Each structure stands twice: as structure tokens, then as C-alpha cells.
Amino acid sequence: MNTLFAQPCAIIDLETTGGNIARDRITEVGVVLIDGERVERLSWLVNPGQPIPPFIENMTGISNEMVAGAPPFPELADELLATLQGRLLLAHNARFDYGFLRNEFRRHGLRFQARALCTVKLSRRLYPQHFKHSLDSLIARHGIEMPERHRALADAEAVYRFLQIAIAELGRDKVEHEAAQLLSQPAELSSLPAELQQQVEDMPDSAGVYAMFGEDGRALYIGRATNLYRKALGHFAERKPGHKSHEVRIDEPVARVEWRESLSEFGARLLELQWLGRWQPVHNPRARMMGEVCTLQLQAGDDAFSRPVPVSARDIDFTRTADLYGLFRHAREARKALAQIALAQGLCQSVLGVEQVTSRKGAPCAAYRIRRCRGACVGDEGADSHNARLLAALQRLKVKPWPFEGAVAVAERDEVCGDVVEHLFDRWCYLGSRRNGGALEGEPAFDIDYYKLLESELRKPDRDLSPQ
Q1: Terminal CA-to-CA distance of the chain, rounded, Å?
Q2: What local confidence, expressed as pLDDT, does residue 403 receive?
Q3: For the GIY-YIG domain, which residue ranges apply (predicted)?
Q4: Alpha helices in 297-395 (DSSP H)
Q5: 457 CB contacts (<8 Å, ≥6 apart)?
Q6: Predicted structure pTM score
Q7: Are 260 and 248 in contact (CB under 8 A)?
Q8: Which H or E run contains 402?
Q9: Catalytic residue among 150, 235, 386, 423
Q10: 142 among known catalytic residues
Q11: What is the pLDDT of residue 402?
């Protein structure tokens, strides 16, 4: 039998104008379709809509004149998608070919999802005694005749012949076993309910945010991932004794999964914060603390000593109040930070109100007894000196004033499809997001995590920022 694997396969190779998955375009597609005993070969030249660099033209033999009359990708998209749909995709360096295909389909409003097997990785497993596994190395090592190297169909044919040779040399069971190991997922999808299994299968191999919901509709967990499909599967993986996993184990039955792709790390983190605040998932302890924000505000006492006092965002507007120090999730965290500052700087915890005074006025505090206080509690240090040192110590915690006259938008740009998503902020408050100039969506919020996220983004020299 010529069957390489039990399922329909498509060995694919692409020629492109270059190696940039977002900027460059496809110039040729070659496919070897395998359905049991039936093998079919298909090839298309593609007009990339941009010049082919001389280096690429010399390497592939595909010139600008050759593709000038060829159809652009949109004219081939439906036919190619129907050809590849439902097949196992094989390619030498599958990440390159699969990524180019997904992006090209996406540019034209089509979603392409397939399981992909990289034959570079397969060759490494089948022939570990060899160091090189490029297609040139395989062709030379196995004596594969190649009249048109760097043409799409010829390269796909070379991969097909390599697989046939590997089966002849090592046996079908060995080849299919190693392929199965490469394709194996971190979880047995067959153990999941059919509807949930389909939802997970539909998740893309791209960055974004996902949410898992229980049978009663409660949100169980929200996560962020560079590969949504792989990350979600990790939650269902069987844990072997002694095996450590970074994925949260969801013990309750998961009924459904929602997900949304993101254009950048900033957008993914922002969306994660929105979903955490909206759904309060039971397996995200951080979500239970969202919205509880406090800071330290200096207040003068009758004795002329300044004291940082925890104040809540419910009581004052952090975005309009000057001289606030630190953002904390609750007053206990603020007092802990103040106690650490006091010990580090030799400030008096009794004067600052961190240590409860249990003895008569003028008695030394506990830190004074171990020489961690300069004696404000016993009159050895005056208010002016203590206040100045306190203010200097607090400067690194000072909440930064809003650096703009009004609202600003942080933009994300999709280099593939050209979409622009703008996230609007004003005085550290998140106002909402809009895509391609549309209506504002999202729930306005102010939180310590929003502040930290935006403050970090504003420090980047290459940020995409515009006043509103």
C-alpha cells in the first residue's frame, strides 16, 4: 500500500517573495495529496502583488514575468481551502508553510486550521545519527532525484519520496509511531464531551485569551497564551506522578470554552484583565482582588510628624489627587510596604503608625531597641528630619501624574489583515477599545493592574500612541 498514514494527507510546499510571514507573499503552491492508494499532484503559480526580489528569483527560477498573468491568492483561496480542509498537513519546516498559509487565508477573510506535521522534526526522530535534516541534506543522503529544486511541487514531491524511503528502510510502524509522537497532544480529547472537544479543536494556534466555564455557567479559569490551542489542552492533560505542570488543574467538569485572538501582548494582557474583572473565575485568585485599590497619602499630625495613611480608591479619585504613594490591593498590603520602608530607612514605625503604641508616650519603639530607628519616638530625631527622610523614601512609590492633556489611544496593528485596534485611556483609567474606528467596546475600569500595564507600555520607545 502507498498509504503513508491512516488519514488523508497533504504534503505542501510554498515559494514566497521572502521569509517575513507578515510582509512577504506566496508565489507558488505545490501539493501532493494522498488518499490511500490514490496520489494526486497539484500546482499553482500565484501573483504575489509585489516584486520578487532578484535573490529569490535566482534561487527559485520564478520570475516576475512568470507570475504576472497568474491569479492572485484570493482567486485560488476557495479551491485551495477545499483541497486542504480536513487533511493532515505535512511540510518540511511546517511552521513556515502553515504560518504563511494561515495568514494568506486570513487576509481574505477565511479561517484555515489544520494539524501540521513537520518532516524536519520527523527526520530527526527517524535518523538521529545524522546532524543535518534540511531538504537539501535529505535529498543528498537518500539519493532523491530533483530536477527542479526550489519549485513548490518538486520540493513537496521530495518530501513524499523521503517518506516512502523511510518506510522502506525503517518500516511503516516506526514511521507512523514517530509521527504520532510528534502529533500527540498534551491531553486526550476523546475523553471530553463531543461539544467541548469541538470547541477546543476550533481554537487557533495563535495568541489570545481563553475562558473555561463550568456546567452551571460559572467561569472556572481565564488564561492568556501565545498558542491558545496548546495552552487549553494543557488543562486537560493527564498528570503523571511526580510530573510538574504550570497549567492550573481544573477538577470540575468544563462545559464550554470561549476564546479571542489578540494582536499583541499588550492587547492580550488588557483583555485578560477585562475578563478577570467581568467573570471572577474561581481558579484565578487574582480576580478576587481586582477593584480593591488603595494608596498611601501623607497626612500631618498634631505633633508635626507626617504619616502615610492608607486610603481607598472608593474614597478619593486617584487620577486627580497629587502626592499619592504606591498602589496596593488592600490596606494590609500598604501597611506592610510602609513597615519595610521604615526598617530599611531607620524610620520610626511607632511614629508612622505601623507599630501599635502599647506603652507610655516617649517610650522607645521596638526598632529603636535593635538600632533600626533613629529615635523619633524618644525625641532623638526631630519632625523635619524624619519627614524629609520619609518623603525621600516614598518617592520611588509615587503614583505618576497623568502625562497627557487628555485621553490617549494605544494602538495595535495587524500586519496581516491591516486591522487597527485602539485601546483608550484617560488619567490611567481604561475607557474601552475600538476596531478600525468603530464603536467603543469594553467596560471602563481603574485598577492597579491596568495602571501597571499602561505605565509599562508608556515606557516603551516604540509604542503606538495617539491623543484623542
Answers
A1: 66
A2: 85
A3: 205-285
A4: 331-345, 349-352, 366-369, 383-394
A5: 266, 410, 463
A6: 0.65
A7: no
A8: none
A9: 150
A10: no
A11: 85
